[in-house]
Every structure is written in structure tokens, then in C-alpha cells.
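Worked Example 4.2. Read the sequence first, then its C-alpha cells.
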Amino acid sequence: MVQTIITYPTPPSVNYSTDVRVFDEKMQNLVDDMKDTINANSLDGLTAFQIGSMYNIVIIKKDDGNFLELINPRLVFTEGKVTTTETTAYFPGLSAKVTRHEKISVVYEDKELKQHSLRAEGDFSILLQRKIDYTFGSSFINKLDPDEKKRFSVKLEFGSDIAISEYCPTSFNRDKILKVINILMLAMVLLFVYSLFEDNQENLSQLWDFQLYTSFGVLGLNIIYFFYAQYEGKKYTSCTSCQIGNIIGTTIISLVKLSFIMLVSFFFI
């Protein structure tokens, strides 16, 4: 019988799965229901946990259409790391980049509760890890890094993967360029202040040369900042307009500061 798969925001009915101690008719009916649910929803696999059962059972649909039944599966060995884009029935229509183990070993039992083991890698490994996570009351959201979790939270809010375009970060790579610009202009200001106490014309001439060449560098960095910042801002469509205004304003302010520093340097140095 096809069962209803628990989906977000409905919380799972149990916190973690309980191992099967006796495989009886009740367990067989549960396995049959899981297979019917997999077929009805075109899934690659399912845990009993996902349909509200407390038992530690994972069913995987193989490429040939047959099913792999894992009773009381446990992850016993892991190797390597890999980051992939995953989807899951608990968050229908949504995806996230998740870092998992590249290769794994799993021990499990069959219907007679005899122990078996298997090794998995690639997509099969990812699928098994995701399903075994569910047996511990977890989903892939618990494995996301902080930035990916923020992006996924936006997807949850809008209920669509498209909502990723609505995510607007608070820091950008262009901020590093701006930091260098500010450091250079601070150095120019400090040298200007120093020049007010310098009487040697040769030293003043060297200070002016430094101010002049540094101003060319700051001007070049402002040009790089302006175009790179627009390129970076276009990645986030929901905040592109406000970002462009901020980029233009930041560039103008920086150029005004530079012009003022050079103007007073010209007259005093």
C-alpha cells in the first residue's frame, strides 16, 4: 500500500529509528508498503522513518528494478570527501550542495536478521548516506556548511530552488579591493601630514612622486572595483539594483577622497 511521505514543514513522527529485533508479518507489510511508495513516487530509495515508522529499515531501488532491503543498516567505514547537489523527498523541489564521504562501508541485516556488508561509492554511496541519516532523525540540512545553510533557508522560505537568486550575501570579494584602496589612501594622508613638517625640498619632491604614483594605482583599483563589483552583483538578481547604486556611490566617494588628497598635496607639497 502506498504511504504518505512526510515532507517539510511537518516534523518526523519519531526522533530516531529503532532496530528490528524480529522480522514478522508486520515488518513484511512495512517493507511492501515502502516498495509501493518508492514506485508510486519514482524514488531511488526510502526509509521507514520517512513514512512515519519507527523501525530502522532502508529500501533502495536498484537499476534493474529490484530492491535492496537493508535492515538495521550502520555506517562502519568512510573514505574521502565529495560535494554534490542533492535532492530529498522531505524537501520536495529543493536542492542543496552537501559534502559527504566518497566511499563507505555499511553493515546490515536481511529478513532472517543475518548480517551482511557492502561497499559503495559514487551516487550509490551518497544515496545510502542520505537514507541512513534519516534513521537517526536527520536530513541533509544538518550537513550543510553555514553559507549553504543560509541559501537553503531562503529556498525554504520561497519554496523553490529559483529562490536562490533572492539570496543576497552581506560580504563580497570586491570588499577586498576596497580595503586595499582605503589602505593606500590612508598611507597618502599620513604622508601628507608628514610633509607638513618636512622642509627638505628633495624629500618633498620624493613625497610628491609617491603621492602621484600611488594615486594612479588607487585610480586603477577603483576602475577594477567598479567593473568587478558589477559582475559580482549580477549573480544576485534580487539585490542587483541596490548593489549597483551602492557600487556607483562607493566609487564616487573613493574618487572624491582621492581628488581631495591630491589637491591638498599639490598645494602643500
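Now turn to a second chain, presented in exactly the same format:
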Amino acid sequence: MGRGPSIEGRKNAEDARRGKLFTKLIREITVAARGGADPAANPRLRIAIDKALTNNMTKDTVERAVRRGSGAEGGDEMTEIRYEGYGPGGIALIIDCMTDNPQRTVADVRHALSKHGGNLGTSGSVAFQFQRVGELVFATPDAAAEEKLLEAALEAGADDVRNGDGESSVLCAPASFEAVKKALIDAGLTPANAGIVWRPDNRVAVAGEQAEVLLDLVDWLEDLDDVQEVFHNAALPTA
């Protein structure tokens, strides 16, 4: 009878995932801090710090990243790059990266896409299909929960609420994100996920092997150290 992964093996895998996540969070804080080291006056930095602390990063690590980004501990060499491309079946992809070696990054991204039946596009080739918005996702298991969230979201100044599959997304302008988030938390509502995202105007249904290949592509891209976030316009099966 075969045995599953050992406890040590699972722990090592979890440690590796955690290490990659922390690398990405530190890069985001460092780059955000270029706009000022005071999170009260720098919304992007405040969002990055909140996300890091939510993922149990220590305050010392956060503060070191802020100092490095603001130049207090020497400059950093990170460059922000956004790639646009297509996955299997022509699914649109936006791939946000931070890198100290753009040539390496574009080669890695291009390789990932070509291995999964996709290709790299030119700047602007798919971005018009997305909107940059603040998005807060909440569990809403029933109509009462949806109604409560809708009332609180509109009171908080959100632009829209989209419901489906037991969860709801509260949408707002990026500039309003922090205020809407605070108002909803103050109302006793805790988001499962919250951030500034690229949200597609329309989603394209994918299923079967195409969905599996797309998911594998997204996993591959997200596993690259230089890739911060991946967005796509696919509607994936829920089960």
C-alpha cells in the first residue's frame, strides 16, 4: 500500500510556499515604499503592509522592507513590469511582475505561456478587457447575508456588489478601497480576500482539459519568483 507525503515532506513544501509568498510581499512593500515610507500618506504601502501582516509576517521584516524601499537602507533594483498575453483557447492574461532582471523574467513568462498553448502579447493587447478596481470578497451563504453586505457596502461608498456561488464581491474605485474596507470591517464584516485587482469586463467559460491546462499555467506563473499576481478572464468550473 502506497504512503502519502511524509509530515516532514509536507512541512518542507509548506515552508517553500510560505517563503515564496513572503518574497513577493516584501517586494511589494519595497516598491510601494518608494512613494513614501508613511503608510498613512501612501495607500499602496498601507495595503501591502496589511496583506503582509495578515499573512503573519513580522513587523521587523515589514519595517526593513519599508526602509529598503524608501532608500533608508540603500536602494533596491526592482522594476515593475506588466505582461499581457493569451492562455489556452485565447484566454486573456495580465501578469504583474517585479524583477531585478527583466530579460530573465520575460524569458520565464514566455516559456510558461508557450508550454501551455499560449503566447505573449504586446502592451495593451488585452488590458482593454479589464478594469482596475478595488475588490473585497466575502462569504455570503444565504440571501440574508447578501442583503446585509449590500446595505453595508452601499453605505460604505462601494460602486457595486456581485453575488454568486456562496460569496460576494464588493467593487469600488482603487482610491476608495481603504475607506470601503475600513467601513465594512467596522460594520463587523471580515473579507476573505481584499486588494486592488484587474477584473475582466466579461468572462469566457472554459471546461475540461482546457480548464486544467489554464489552471496549470496560472500555477506555473505564480510559482515564478518574479511574478507577483496573475489575472485572467476565464470562468472556471466551480466543481
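Notes for the reader: The first strand starts at residue 79 and ends at 86. The chain has two domains: 7-70, 79-239.
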